[in-house]
Design brief:
It is a single chain. With about 675 residues, the protein is of the alpha/beta class. The protein has a six-stranded parallel beta sheet, with helices on both faces. The protein has a six-stranded mixed beta sheet with strand order 8-11-10-12-7-9. α7 packs antiparallel against α8 and α21 runs parallel beside α24. It is elongated. The two termini are about 45 Å apart. About 0% of the residues have low confidence. In the central section; belongs to the CRISPR-associated helicase Cas3 family. Belongs to the DEAD box helicase family. It comes from Floridaenema fluviatile BLCC-F154.
């Protein structure tokens, strides 16, 4: 990487003689302050930035109430607008706050949140902004006196105060009402904001307060605030290393989403949906919905918690305020079932809900103010609209696939590129897929050679990686060879054949059935069928049975040919077991002892051994001839397998290289699985 220094002459050219000043103001920003400044200085373009949506909404209503003479054109922009309304607002803003704008008889005011910190090439004469960390503040300030020759002022306020008539709205995003003694800095860290304020206060009290704040001074401010803050964070991480390791383990190895967000960036928001049809308002728990097709609003958890507490403090009881949207669990997880709604009955329920349905009686939306939620909000029949059409990767219905045929198609996707005709937005187009082998073989081989079996040549390592992918494909659907799985799926396929022009099941062992999810009649027919014939799980069952296959096909190779030690043998074999068990859900945990009796023994179909043997012969003939395969084809030699405990979360931090190998193997497995339906 080459570091390029910018000369002072170049900086002066870049800054283009613009003049931007900063001032820290301890008194709260109120709507009257904005109006007084406009009138005293004949402002034409003003930008106001709040840290929360609710403050922006409250200030918008305050300022709108002062617009007696209709001389102000006020626009509100934040993240709780529908995409079409936000896009129109941004287009209007870009026109009015542009470099080439022609003055008119109005003063144009933009009240916004952080959404304007990047991506909008706009400018203004004065910016009123709430205190935020220095890096964000300078991003905001870049929208004041942005272009050559312009002059602008950036006024930074310790707090924003909404007038009493709109105070409840302005405080909506705070779990507790902020006070001067207990200032909330949401969504930012208090330390960063306080360090920023110290720098700005010192500048405001200096003789340089009316001078241009240039790039060099901005860089000095960034260093003073964020180097100090980074040092504090580094020290905090050092002191909290044990807690970090616990969260890392919980997120990566056990799939605890409640800590995963903390490890990346703490944005404590929830996706909110609204329905208004009478049949949905008071629907029972376990009602199915499809949030993937609907637009969601991202709302802070603090906002929802405040609404929840308001509901608890009501002197009367309402039917419900929130419902948790969650994916089906247990046996329903591997069916076509949609997510279901469960009433939120406690604050803890709400905290651990990620997609939430809100009672439409307490939701208001319009294109001026955006989304409002609260017990005192009068609903206006708003519903969550459908997502706009987008270029789909492919549109296809599920088609009947035999067990042997499905594995063969997946292995072909690994080996070969192919072209197919597929639907994209209702139009048939030709699509070309490269071979998954070409995408991942070299990466997988190099990883094995460098991180796990360092004694191998790159050719040997690539051959081993390809063999692991073959074994993952070969074992991932073994659970579908159960008698009960075949019985249920063949029953549905018979209905698909007789009622929906599907293929006849004949005597084939199936991997997939015919099903068109866009056909409402089929959807209802499948729902009725599965109400009587629950589809058995198969993924964890596949992982369990894979142990027997790998003991015959992988263990001898690793031990005898590649001289792997016990830890390496276990780690490599476990990557394939994990890929088979988690090919539907990345957080499948296996079976605990208490679950064994409930699951029952695995009874294999009488034709299972023939299907396994045929698949092995057809797939392995394409492997490298230098790879020593077992002399006898691996198979499941029992008709019944009593199950026992199976742990799919055994990797830990000191086995990270095997988890990474699993990611490569399961990536290959999923790509082959997805593409095979296109053949």
């Amino acid at each position: 990487m080459e570091i390029i220094e910018v000369s002072q002459t170049d900086l002066a050219t870049i800054e283009g003689n613009r003049h931007r000043t900063f001032r820290a103001i301890a008194t709260p920003l109120i709507s009257e302050v904005i109006l007084d400044d406009i009138q005293q200085n004949q402002r034409q373009r003003v930008i106001v930035i709040c840290n929360t949506v609710s403050q922006a909404q409250g200030l918008f209503r305050d300022l709108d109430a002062l617009n007696f003479e209709d001389k102000l054109k006020i626009t509100l922009l934040h993240s709780r607008f529908l995409p079409e309304h936000r896009a129109q607002k941004e287009a209007d803003i870009k026109a009015v706050f542009s470099e080439q704008w022609q003055a008119d008889s109005y003063c144009h005011i933009l009240i916004a949140t952080q959404v304007i910190e990047a991506g909008l090439n706009i400018t203004c004469e004065i910016m009123h902004t709430e205190l935020c960390p220095m890096n964000s503040l300078l991003q905001r300030a870049g929208r004041c006196a942005r272009f050559k020759g312009e002059k602008g002022e950036v006024c930074v306020y310790w707090s924003i105060q909404i007038n009493p008539e709109n105070g409840e709205l302005g405080d909506r995003d705070f779990a507790e009402e902020p006070t001067e003694q207990k200032k909330s800095f949401l969504p930012y860290e208090r330390e960063l904001c306080e360090l920023t304020w110290q720098v700005l206060e010192a500048h405001t009290q200096s003789e340089q307060v009316n001078q241009q704040v240039n790039f060099n001074l901005e860089q000095a401010w960034i260093n003073r605030v964020h180097i100090a803050a980074d040092s504090l964070q580094a020290e905090r991480r050092k002191n909290d290393s044990a807690e970090f390791e616990r969260k890392f383990n919980d997120a990566i190895f056990t799939g605890d989403r409640s800590v995963a967000d903390d490890l990346i960036r703490h944005v404590d928001n929830r996706n909110v949906f609204v329905w208004n049809e009478p049949t949905f308002i008071d629907f029972d728990d376990n009602q199915q919905i499809n949030p993937k097709k609907l637009l969601a609003f991202s709302v802070p958890l603090t906002t929802l918690l405040k609404v929840w507490r308001e509901v608890q403090n009501l002197e009367y009881q309402i039917d419900w305020i929130f419902k948790r949207i969650e994916s089906p669990k247990g046996k329903a997880a591997e069916t076509y079932n949609l997510p279901i709604c469960i009433t939120v009955r406690s604050q803890n329920d709400l905290v651990y809900s990620w997609q939430i349905l809100v009672n439409p009686r307490y939701v208001y939306y319009d294109e001026k103010i955006g989304l409002l939620i609260g017990v005192n909000v009068e609903g206006n029949n708003f519903i969550s609209p459908n997502k706009p059409p987008k270029q789909a990767v492919s549109e296809y219905q599920y088609q009947m696939d035999t067990y042997v045929g499905h594995l063969g198609c997946m292995w072909k996707c690994w080996q070969e590129s192919f072209s197919t005709i597929s639907l994209k937005n209702g139009t048939w187009v030709k699509t070309k897929y490269g071979s998954v082998r070409h995408e991942l073989l070299n990466t997988g081989g190099r990883f094995i050679q460098q991180k796990i079996l360092t004694q191998l040549t790159i050719t040997q390592a690539e051959e081993l990686f390809e063999y692991l992918v073959l074994l993952a494909i070969f074992t991932h659907d073994l659970g579908k060879l159960q008698i009960k799985w075949q019985a249920v799926m063949r029953g549905w396929q018979a209905i698909a054949h007789s009622s929906f022009k599907g293929k006849p099941p004949k005597s084939h062992l199936l991997a997939h059935t015919d099903y068109n999810p866009e056909d409402e009649e089929q959807k209802q027919a499948l729902k009725a069928y599965e109400a009587k014939h629950k589809r058995p799980n198969h993924a964890v069952e596949s992982a369990f049975l894979a142990q027997y296959i790998l003991q015959q096909s992988l263990f001898p190779l690793l031990q005898n040919e590649f001289n792997a030690d016990n830890q390496q043998i276990f780690g490599v074999m476990y990557t394939v077991i994990l890929a088979a068990g988690r090919h539907h859900s990345a957080w499948a945990k296996g079976w605990e002892i208490k679950e064994i009796r409930k699951v029952g023994d695995i009874q294999l179909h009488p034709e299972a051994q023939n299907a396994i043997a045929f698949s092995w012969r057809s797939m392995t003939r394409w492997l490298s001839k230098t790879l020593p395969l077992p002399t006898e084809a691996p198979n499941l030699n029992q008709s019944c397998y009593p199950i026992r405990e199976l742990d799919l979360k055994r990797f830990s931090l000191n086995q990270m290289e095997y988890l990474q190998l699993y990611w490569l193997v399961v990536r290959a497995l999923r790509l082959c699985d997805q593409r095979s339906v296109q053949l």
